[in-house]
């Protein structure tokens, strides 16, 4: 694999031991993947930063890097951690303390601690630029919505890539590796407007094409719905890449590059028919996977305003970002709290003990991604609900 003089110097140790060790791993991986060279990345996004998932070994690894004075070479953001930095939610102090050590280690290396799975909502991402991202929904989003290039990378590998600003050139980092193999046409008269339906569609596509790359022909009426489609698809897809007709930049070029793609028709009515609530046995509603942006939170705010003084009978937890919280007035936040709706920052239920801490063993959710991970990661059961129906059952249960 070709290395330029700067990359050879990093590998040789001219920029410190931590950089040299990072380069050794990246070069070795590049050789295994038969990459011809390294490419320079613009941003990195690190996942796998919850103490729940990486434990003491992960903490020790990050602290070892900080002791080596390792610094990130590119703008680097960080996924949700295992705690809400503004509310302990009854989580044990030892867990919180160790999570803060992880956060502080990342801070010392120069990470921007947004602690969100939706960094794409706050970054200006240019088409056909290179990135090293580990969060699957975010990988799928920037690939599909921006035609920005990243593989679905392991979290520890992204840490190393952020230190040297490089990744091996392979797979989705090449135009050849991004050519769609399947044309997936969704039959339906109206744009898809329900998050649950979009998520189930993403799951269906991933199951239909396996490790293929879809060119999707479907219409969606909001970015929130697209987020659910891509988050679900990325959960079940090995690579988290798709091209969306009329949305992905350069979609026409991708379409013309296809060579005898397999064609798949999906009838959205079949998905709708099997969606929705099967029972009402739940302890809380969870929304915000991927993290809710300001538009999604404001749709909840408007819903609550229409309810007047009525209070949800079951608590509603919404994962969002500090950017959103800082946009909302204290009056709006208090109105939500008074309605038994709670904004949760910097974390996600599948990497945190917070749902167990508040006594929620079964949640109602619209997120197909959550439906996959909650039972496996934290032993939380779920029921599915369609969009605004999630709030309806909380208020009218």
Structural write-up:
The protein has 397 residues and is of the alpha/beta class. It has three domains: 5-173, Aconitase, domain 3, CATH 3.30.499.10; 176-273, no CATH class; 284-396, Aconitase, domain 3 (2-Layer Sandwich). 43% of the residues lie in helices and 16% in strands. The protein has helices at 5-12, 17-32, 51-67, 93-108, 136-146, 155-164, 195-209, 223-236, 251-257, 268-273, 294-307, 322-327, 330-338, 354-357, 368-378, 389-396; strands at 38-40, 43-46, 75-78, 131-133, 166-168, 182-187, 214-217, 243-244, 262-267, 284-292, 316-320, 341-345, 362-365, 381-384. The strands form four sheets. Strands 12-11-10-13-14 form a five-stranded parallel sheet, with helices on both faces. A four-stranded parallel sheet has the order 8-7-6-9. Helix 15 links the parallel strand 13 (362-365) and strand 14 (381-384). It is globular and about 65 Å long. The mean pLDDT is 96.
């Amino acid at each position: 694999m070709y290395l330029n003089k700067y990359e050879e110097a990093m590998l040789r140790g001219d920029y410190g031991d931590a950089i040299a060790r990072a380069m050794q791993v990246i070069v070795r991986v590049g050789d295994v993947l038969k990459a011809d060279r390294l490419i320079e990345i613009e941003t990195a996004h690190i996942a796998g930063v919850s103490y729940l998932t990486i434990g003491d070994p992960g903490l020790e690894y990050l602290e070892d890097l900080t002791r080596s004075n390792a610094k990130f070479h590119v703008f680097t953001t960080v996924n949700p951690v295992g705690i809400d930095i503004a509310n302990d939610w009854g989580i044990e102090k030892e867990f919180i303390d160790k999570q803060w050590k992880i956060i502080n280690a990342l801070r010392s290396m120069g990470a921007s601690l947004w602690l969100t799975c939706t960094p794409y909502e706050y970054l200006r991402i240019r088409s056909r630029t290179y990135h090293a991202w580990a969060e699957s929904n975010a990988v799928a989003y920037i690939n599909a919505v921006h035609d920005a290039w990243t593989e679905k990378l392991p979290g520890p590998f992204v840490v190393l890539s952020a230190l040297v600003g490089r990744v091996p050139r392979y797979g989705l980092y090449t135009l050849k590796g991004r050519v769609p193999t399947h044309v997936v046409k969704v039959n339906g008269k109206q744009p898809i407007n329900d998050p649950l339906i979009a998520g189930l569609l993403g799951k269906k596509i991933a199951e239909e094409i396996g490790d293929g790359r879809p060119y999707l022909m479907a219409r969606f009426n909001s970015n929130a719905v697209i987020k659910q489609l891509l988050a679900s698809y990325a959960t079940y897809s090995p690579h988290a890449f798709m091209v969306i007709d009329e949305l992905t930049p350069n979609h026409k070029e991708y379409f013309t590059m296809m060579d005898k793609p397999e064609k798949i028709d999906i009838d959205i009515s079949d998905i709708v028919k099997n969606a929705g609530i099967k029972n009402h046995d739940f302890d809380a509603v969870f929304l915000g996977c991927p993290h809710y942006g300001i538009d999604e939170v404001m749709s909840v705010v408007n819903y609550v305003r229409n309810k007047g003084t009525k209070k949800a009978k079951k608590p509603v937890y919404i994962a969002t970002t500090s950017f959103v919280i800082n946009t909302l007035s204290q009056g709006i936040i208090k109105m939500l709290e008074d309605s038994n709706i709670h904004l949760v920052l910097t974390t996600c239920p599948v990497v945190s003990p917070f749902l167990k801490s508040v006594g929620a063993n079964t949640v109602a959710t619209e997120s197909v991604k959550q439906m996959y991970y909650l039972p496996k990661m934290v032993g939380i059961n779920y029921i599915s609900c369609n969009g605004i129906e999630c709030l309806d059952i909380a208020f009218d249960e």
